[in-house]
Hints:
Layout: H1 13-26, H2 39-46, H3 50-62, E1 66-69, E2 73-76, H4 80-98, H5 103-112
Antiparallel strand pairs: 1-2
Helix pairs in contact: 1-3, 1-4, 2-3
Amino acid sequence: MLSEIDKSDPIALHEQVASQIRRAIADGEAGPGERLPLARDLAAVLGVNRNTVLRALHMLRDEGLLEFRRGQGIKVTGTRQKSDLLAQVHELVATARRNGYRKSELIEMIEAVKG
């Protein structure tokens, strides 16, 4: 499901971890209701610190892709479609930042789109 993180990549490590988990959800490797391995196990597989993994997991929880339950671990709650959409949103935000657009400007552009 996951491969080692590229520490020379300019993208933050926790972002890389989150992206790999998003991709696993999008590819159907981790579906709704499935439990993820423990953060320390994920960290060992990815070759990063446990806190880096925890930061990524909290980010994905805030996006609605994961759910934390005491005694039950971390479960996938998001769907493949939501994961795909979130990946596109992250790409859009990164592109906007690279091109000098502020968040408010990006929101205005999205709201102007008729759909």
